[in-house]
Every structure is written in structure tokens, then in C-alpha cells.
Write a structure and sequence with these properties.
alpha/beta, UDP-N-acetylmuramoyl-L-alanine:D-glutamate ligase, eleven-stranded mixed beta sheet, seven-stranded parallel beta sheet, Rossmann fold
Length: 510
């Protein structure tokens, strides 16, 4: 798992390395500059001229060191210094003096954006060293204009640590920001590198080791980026003499007349992800469609009301044979489904994943989940998460990680907040970000598939946090694989078909 740091945590990692362990800051700066220099020299070797835009602080010092190192490699380099020289302190001031001694051409632009405009024509690549991860406010005035000029130059930009204008501790984008082709960051990715929309401004993110020990990074981190090898470690082992009884029994409580497809998709996904047995408890009118679509699953008919949804009775016998429950897809939100959900929350003590209509029925009542003794996973999209918290959807999309953390705090559940770069919060350990997935998941039924995947993993004894994270990774990777056939939306049924390939990749990495 890749540790992800915010700005405060990165400052502390720097402090420990420099003050406690004794590695000079100048060494860190030189090594960081070397990593950026390698990227520029490797990927933009044909650039006739490199423009390095330097701002205040250590980010500007990094840029000055990059300029000197590039000059030593034979590049034509110009530095646009957008602050007065007295504003550079400590290591950054030392780098300015070194750059001058090594013959780097330094243009003292000061506060003059027009001077920067004169320097951009003819550059083959721009190195953005204006602001680092410690920026805590949107850029305004001349800084916003400077960033606009860099973006408008029409050449690739390599950002040092973070595209200027982004804030390292947030996925938000406020005001003007550099749009980088490559970002070279140090020791660990930052929050802005992994969460949208900020991450879309970073281009390719390269993480360079500069001398900060990995254990120092690990001690600071509270957020992690999931990798395939993590998923492989979480997936159940299937012994040579295993039988279906070893892999649990998932009860999918879902569907109603006219919405049997949602239940069938969840059940198909659960079968594919290895649940030993799958039973669908659904309204009487949905039984035949589910049986036709998922012959591997058993179906328990439940009494239905006039609206075709469950009446709320008759689930007791089904609960007795389950090891985990997946509740919600296509269930409905009328009085019958509400009674059925209340019964589940009052009587079921095993692992439970709630999605779709079950989340709508829980709107504003997250605290009720705290009474459960068994693990609970919630899988809301931004609208559902907003209803659960009683806030507008826009507030959720502004900071999905924070919203998921609040929902987990109120409910005691693991919260999987859907979206590009799905986040998983709760269950102990770091919060997690899932890097897999495509816009093709924006299709009807995709969420039902995810519910079945997580339910199958819960039924097989995978802990809630790990089941949610592994489910998100497999679901997203299946979408990427299906994208080879479907350039737009991925039909949910085809998503199920690719789950096995995604699982095989995780279990047997290349």
C-alpha cells in the first residue's frame, strides 16, 4: 500500500529527517532536484530550451537546483525568478548563489508578469517551481496571472512536488492552477495527487525517494492508495480440498417486480467472486426473472405488497442460513422495504453491506447503525451520502473524503464513498483510496455489481474494510478491462464477466 501524506504530515516527515535524524536539508533539496532533472532529461531530451519558473520558499530553491543540474547536462536553461532575491532564505538562497556561480541565466522578474511572458516563447518544456504542497489558499493577482501564462505557453509542464495553485492536503481545486504533464513529488504522494479533481491537474505523478526513510513516512500517514498486491493479500485462499461450505453463504435482499435485474446483477457478481452459496430473497414477482438470470443462485420468495415490493414479512427463514447480507439494490423505499430493513437491523448480527434503496431508507438515521454488533459497510454515491448526512450533494462532492469520514464517525460503519477515486473510511487503520476504474462505471447496475462483490467477500470472512477496498479495486479493474470492448459506458453484465480477469490479475501479478 502506498502511503499518502497531507501537507502537515509532510512537514513533520521533513522535520524528523532533518532535525532528529540529522540529514541536512540541502541534501534533501539536491536529491529532489536530481529526481526532477532526471524526468526532464529523460522525457524531454529534445527540448532546445528549458524555462524554470521559481517562486518563494523551498519550492523555488528546488527549481534553482534543477536549473543548475540541467545546465550541467548541457541544456539551455533560463530561470524566471518571480520574487525578489531577499525573499529567498536558507537553502533556497544558497541554491540561488550556486545557480549564479554555475552560469545559469537568471531573469529577475520580481512582480513583473510581463517579463515572464517574454520568456515563455521558445521554451520546449517548463519546470513549475512556484509553490509547493504547503500552499493553503487559492492563487490570486500576479500569481494567478503567472500560472495562466505557463498554462498558455503550449508546452509540457513538469511540476516540482505539486502543480502550483493546488493545496497538498485537499483534492479541491480553487482558482488558477498549473496543468502539469508530469508531477515529480518526494517521499510520498500527497492528497492532491490522488483525489479528484486536483489529481487531474497533476498529469503523471512520479514519486521520488530523496532520503526520507519509509518508516518516517509510514508513521505520519493516515491515508493509503490501494495496490493490487494489497488486494491479493486480502482475498480468501482456496485450499485444494476446499468445498462450498468453506466460502460462506451470501443472502442478497434485493429486487421487486420490475427491478429484478438489480438483484440478479448483485447475485451474479457474488457467485463470480466466490461466495460458496448465494440466495436472493426478493419480492414474489421478481423470483422468476432472478432464477432465469442467475441459475447458480437460490431464490427465496417474499410476500409482496400492491406496489410489487416486499411487504416486510417472511425473511426470518432466509436469515438463519446466511453468513453475510447484501441489502438494497432494487428493493424499493415504500413501507414494506422500510419494515424489512428495520427487521434486519434489529435481528441480524453478522456482516452487512447496505446499498441503493437501503441507504435511502436510512437517510438522516446513520446513528441507528451504531447499535449493530456486526460489521457494516455502506456504499453511497454522492447523492446518497448527502442524504445520509443531511447535506447537499455539492457539499459531498467538494470533499468526499471528509464526508465519508463524518458518515463513518456517526454510524460506526465502513463507508465506501463512490466516485472517481473511490474512498474507503472506517474499520481501523488508514483511510483508503482506490485508483482503479473508468468513466464507463457511470452506467445503470454498476453499483449493484459492487454490492455483490463486497457481499461475497464478507460472506467468505474478509473484514469489512478490506472487503470494501478489495471490492472497489476489483470492480474498477473489471471496468478497465471491459473498456477494451466498450469505449463508453460498460454494461453492468459485462462488468461481471470481467471480474474473474480482475481477480486473476490481483492474485497473479505480472
Amino acid at each position: 500500500m502506498i502511503a499518502v501524506l497531507d501537507a502537515r504530515q509532510m512537514r513533520e516527515a521533513d522535520r524528523v529527517t532533518i532535525r532528529v535524524l540529522g540529514l541536512p536539508g540541502m541534501v534533501l533539496m539536491e536529491t529532489a532536484a536530481g529526481a526532477v532533472t532526471e524526468v526532464v532529461a529523460d522525457r524531454f531530451a529534445d527540448a532546445r530550451r528549458v524555462l524554470v519558473a521559481c517562486g518563494p520558499g523551498n519550492n523555488g530553491g528546488d527549481g534553482l537546483a534543477v536549473a543548475r543540474q540541467l545546465r550541467c547536462r548541457g541544456f539551455a536553461v533560463d530561470v524566471a525568478l518571480l520574487v525578489g532575491e531577499p525573499e529567498l532564505k536558507g537553502d533556497a538562497a544558497a541554491q540561488l548563489e550556486l545557480a549564479r556561480r554555475f552560469g545559469v541565466t537568471i531573469h529577475r522578474c520580481g512582480s513583473s508578469v510581463s517579463r515572464l511572458a517574454d520568456l515563455t516563447p521558445g521554451a520546449g518544456v517548463i519546470v513549475d517551481a512556484l509553490f509547493g504542497t504547503g500552499l493553503d489558499r487559492p492563487l490570486e493577482g500576479r500569481w494567478a496571472k503567472a500560472v495562466g501564462l505557463l498554462n498558455g505557453a503550449g508546452v509540457p509542464i513538469v511540476s516540482v512536488d505539486i502543480p502550483s495553485g493546488l493545496q497538498g492536503s485537499s483534492g479541491e481545486v480553487g482558482g488558477e492552477t498549473v496543468k502539469a504533464a508530469v508531477t515529480v513529488t518526494f517521499a510520498a504522494p500527497k492528497v492532491a495527487h490522488v483525489l479528484p479533481p486536483a489529481c487531474w491537474r497533476c498529469g503523471e505523478v512520479a514519486v521520488a525517494e530523496i532520503g526520507i526513510p519509509p518508516w518516517v513516512v509510514q508513521e505520519q500517514a493516515t491515508l493509503g492508495l490501494v495496490e493490487g498486491e494489497d488486494v491479493a493479500a486480502w482475498l480468501p485462499i482456496r485450499a485444494a480440498d476446499a468445498h462450498k461450505g468453506n466460502f460462506g453463504h451470501l443472502l442478497v435482499v434485493a429486487g421487486r417486480e420490475g427491478r429484478a435485474g438489480a438483484a440478479a446483477l448483485a447475485a451474479r457478481a457474488a457467485v463470480t467472486l466466490g461466495a460458496g452459496l448465494v440466495t436472493v430473497a426478493t419480492a414474489h414477482g421478481a423470483v422468476r426473472p432472478v432464477q432465469a438470470q442467475v441459475p447458480e443462485a437460490m431464490v427465496d420468495p417474499l410476500p409482496a405488497g400492491k406496489d410489487g415490493a416486499v411487504s416486510g414479512e417472511g425473511l426470518e427463514g432466509s436469515l438463519g442460513k446466511a453468513t453475510a447480507l447484501a441489502v438494497g439494490p432494487g428493493l424499493g423505499v415504500s413501507a414494506g422495504p422500510r419494515r424489512l430493513l428495520a427487521t434486519i437491523l434489529e435481528t441480524w448480527v453478522g456482516p452487512l453491506v447496505l446499498d441503493a434503496d437501503a441507504l435511502t431508507l436510512l437517510a438522516g438515521r446513520l446513528e441507528e447503525l451504531r447499535r449493530r454488533t456486526g460489521p457494516t459497510v455502506l456504499t453511497p454515491h454522492p447523492g446518497e451520502l448527502g442524504r445520509l448526512l443531511g447535506v447537499p450533494t455539492a457539499d459531498v462532492t467538494k470533499n468526499r473524503l471528509q464526508a465519508a469520514q463524518e458518515a463513518s464517525r456517526r454510524s460506526g460503519a465502513v463507508v465506501l464513498a463512490k466516485g472517481a477515486r473511490t474512498v474507503i473510511v472506517g474499520g481501523g487503520g488508514w483511510s483508503l483510496v482506490n485508483p482503479t476504474g473508468t468513466p464507463g462505471l457511470a452506467s445503470g447496475g454498476a453499483g449493484d455489481v459492487l454490492t455483490g462483490v463486497i457481499g461475497a467477500l464478507l460472506a467468505q470472512g474478509v473484514p469489512a474494510r478490506e472487503a470494501a477496498a478489495a471490492g472497489a479495486w476489483l470492480h474498477g479493474r473489471a471496468a478497465e478491462l471491459a473498456g477494451e470492448r466498450f469505449p463508453g459506458a460498460v454494461p453492468a453484465g459485462s462488468l461481471v464477466e470481467e471480474l474473474s480477469r480482475a481477480e486473476l490479475e490481483a492474485r497473479r501479478p505480472a
